[in-house]
């Protein structure tokens, strides 16, 4: 029983609050009917059994399994997932390009509703709409306190992925085995548990099936242009790679007032969408018999102002660096490089004044910025619809990854 007016806590089924006609109801009580699982009135404090896509090893399909999700401990939040995008970084773990411990529940670009909270949690409450943050923000460490940094010291990032929550344990079990988390988020599951420093409350009116992209792809690309490169009015930009992240870089370059935005991809099917979001020219390196950096230098009278590598390859990182002006050019690495590989750089390329930099999550401090980005989306300051090409149920996750690998999708949203 709940008091009249209480919010229906999200349950494993499709819960709703109904008015009854008995004496208690007449006193202001209402009856909570849980449609999916009528036995469960509230799931808080209990283990939830639900479906998740588990990856048991590299280069294998995801397996839809029943998993047990333990209740949140102190300073943790359990979230009922509503929508999650498929990002190339998830696929990098499948292929071994990013090394992370197995078995694992991937997914890091999502939106959902808080189901329950652990002791001491103050920034969210059950029923709040939230976005999990794959870059945490504790707000207290040296880097959180630094104005420019967004890499909180509590992050679980490459070179030392632990696949655990802050207390060093996991909340997922499947077939009696403990399942690893991924970057503190693990959104390919009907329910997930995250640390409070890895979740942001967002506008209650926001459409979760769209703003989930603010959890990674959109913010990463957009921030790389407006915050990391600091693209200037009237400038010329080159964007290598036209996936969900690259297109978001273009949206950012356009918002910053770039005069020319040259989109580069070997898949010409991506060009129409790139133009739709703001590219002024599109080039396919395979159409030329000279290196793409020379083509871009010629197109820009000696070198572009800003270049972005949004693929995750060493050769295109080198081309992006070389195509920007040798004196004032700024080149930003956004794509995640293959594990343990080195990019040799002739220091002369930098001695003349070029800047080479990189950023995760567009340089945004996550917990501070995500709610603001959602507000900006609601105020129509940027679009997300062009990035969403497919919507599938979680059960069809493997189909979603095939669409990404074959270059046929931008973002597939998995719905729950
Ligand atoms: P995606 O696979 O949707 O897009 C990559 C694009 O690159 C595709 O359109 C390809 O056709 C194109 N491409 C591939 N090879 C070449 C080539 N040799 N020359 C030109 N174009 C090529 O990926 P995405 O947009 O989801 O992610 C892009 C990268 O960004 C990927 O490496 C991902 O791991 C990384 C990423 N980084 C962050 C971050 O915080 N830095 C966040 C999210 C994603
Ligand atoms: Zn991502
Ligand atoms: Zn911190």
UniProtKB/TrEMBL annotation:
Residues of the signal peptide: none
Main location: cytoplasm
Domain of life: Eukaryota
One GO BP annotation of this record: retinol metabolic process
Location of the Enoyl reductase (ER) domain: 57-414
Region (Disordered): 1-20
Keyword terms of this UniProt record: Acetylation, Cytoplasm, Metal-binding, NAD, Oxidoreductase, Zinc
Gene3D superfamilies (alphabetical): Medium-chain alcohol dehydrogenases, catalytic domain, NAD(P)-binding Rossmann-like Domain
Similarity comment text for this entry: Belongs to the zinc-containing alcohol dehydrogenase family. Class-I subfamily.
Protein name: Alcohol dehydrogenase 1
Natural source organism: Octodon degus
